[in-house]
Protein: Methyltransferase type 11 domain-containing protein
Organism: Daucus carota subsp. sativus
Amino acid sequence: MDIKKLGKYSRAPSFFFVVGSLTLLVCIATLSKFYSLRTFVISDTFCNFSNPVRDGSADKYMKQTLDTVIQKIKEEINNTRDLPDESSHGPRFSAFLVDILGMIELVQESLPHIDTSELQNGEPHAVHPLVRRKQNSDAAEYFLIEEIRKYVRIKPNRLRKQNFMGANGTFTSIGHSCFIMKKELEEYMDYDIGDICQDDWRLAQKLMVHGCDPLPRRRCLSRAPQLYTKPLPISESLWTLPDNRNVRWSQYLCKNFSCLANNVTRKGFFKCADCFNFTHHELPRWIIPEYQDPSSNLTADFLITEVLDLNPGEIRIGLDFSIGTGTFAARMREHNVTIVSASINLGAPFNEMIALRGLIPLYLTINQRLPFFDNTLDLIHTTRFLDGWIDFVLLDFVLYDWDRVLRPGGLLWIDSFFCLKEDLNDYLESFKMLRYKKHKWVTIPKIDKDDKEVFFSAVLEKPPRPF
Ligand SMILES: *[C@@H]1O[C@H](CO)[C@@H](O)[C@H](O)[C@H]1NC(C)=O
Ligand SMILES: *[C@@H]1O[C@H](CO)[C@@H](O)[C@H](O)[C@H]1NC(C)=O
Ligand SMILES: *[C@@H]1O[C@H](CO)[C@@H](O)[C@H](O)[C@H]1NC(C)=O
Ligand SMILES: *[C@@H]1O[C@H](CO)[C@@H](O)[C@H](O)[C@H]1NC(C)=O
Ligand SMILES: *[C@@H]1O[C@H](CO)[C@@H](O)[C@H](O)[C@H]1NC(C)=O
Ligand SMILES: *[C@@H]1O[C@H](CO)[C@@H](O)[C@H](O)[C@H]1NC(C)=O
Ligand SMILES: *[C@@H]1O[C@H](CO)[C@@H](O)[C@H](O)[C@H]1NC(C)=O
Ligand SMILES: *[C@@H]1O[C@H](CO)[C@@H](O)[C@H](O)[C@H]1NC(C)=O
């Protein structure tokens, strides 16, 4: 009699426990769903654990919590078994607990195995998420396509020694948005090793533009134009439309260069619809200023000679971060300045065009740190790229990165940046923040759009930093 009563009472708190553990389970399930992303996306608001364990050790904490929950459920199952089973609740309750136990253990299984001894001595020893697990890594596990898993995994050096660069392995990296664009990336990486790749550069570019950048490398043979003709000699190539056969046109509206150059078709990128017209649009750029309104002297254009004369003979190498066909680099070449043209293929084969002109295309999105070392370039020029669309914080990151690669005395040429009038001051603040010497600085109204927009151009010089 007494024992029965006791049994009844002892079961009461266990229901509270079950409710509690269910809540926890839901919490853990949510976490584990986002688990693969967690090292990339700060998500410590999902579950506000009472014990505030910071980012790196959160995994361990989760594991510890799971262990505790499992232990408690096991104890509870033991207790329930010990109860006299005349009550109908006993077996049902027990079965319920076993069920939950199975689910939690499944979640635990899907976690990377963490040495809990590390946990005890409390040292927050940072372990790379991709090496935590001996055979498999969680980021690799996230993808279903074997080629992605193989690519993402850290490749230890043979002989298990450091290589000449001082690294224990090779860390092939992918952009964090690759995890968000799982489906597209899996489509991109689904190929037969050694075979011809799909005609999917557009998918690749889409992935890159959306932050899956760097994109994994592939082990298939890229497609090439069917009949590639010899490029023109440099004396001709700079100002001649190349052979149409040297470009793969399948993903473009235009199927030849004359279509792109013709201002009737306008099938290229809208910001650069006439960039392929060498004879008219491109020829005078940076040689003759363009006036929006012929009746006034207002222009945001500076001439190459004006800019080079600021520091004669000092400008030898630089970067043009624009959308275009490389005309800036072509003109600078005439002044013996080597310019690398960063561009992506928005609606037209800009990279192929730049290369066929005999200039260097750099296929690069705005997402990445520039692949140049600090204090190396003499000049950075930009036009038609950073405009009124750009987020202020992003602009800051971009400008500081440009500052990093510019050498002291190097020039930053902002060419016809345009934005809404009301945004101008905020953008100008960003440019001023670099505290560069102002060689040129003009703001003029942009005439087309109801007078709501303005052009801004500047040539700025990075000061020496003697510290
Ligand atoms: C998390 O819990 C702490 C107290 O443990 C509290 O101060 C904090 O506001 C909570 N944060 C959120 C996002 O709930
Ligand atoms: C449950 O009971 C069995 C034997 O009755 C025992 O071996 C086991 O350690 C107990 N488990 C827990 C978690 O108490
Ligand atoms: C590289 O390996 C050595 C020896 O195996 C080890 O002592 C060192 O900590 C490792 N370095 C890194 C960065 O993992
Ligand atoms: C170029 O393409 C356009 C339409 O895309 C076509 O009308 C024209 O005939 C083509 N020109 C050449 C030279 O192939
Ligand atoms: C370039 O533009 C001019 C006028 O804007 C046009 O007459 C000429 O045909 C264009 N060039 C090509 C190759 O289409
Ligand atoms: C081509 O563009 C120029 C100016 O960019 C314009 O004057 C001319 O009328 C255009 N030609 C055609 C056929 O649209
Ligand atoms: C533009 O400038 C030139 C010389 O710099 C001058 O001769 C001309 O009158 C100016 N035109 C206008 C419309 O101001
Ligand atoms: C470029 O270099 C060549 C060869 O060194 C020289 O003949 C030419 O005058 C230079 N051009 C300019 C604009 O400096």
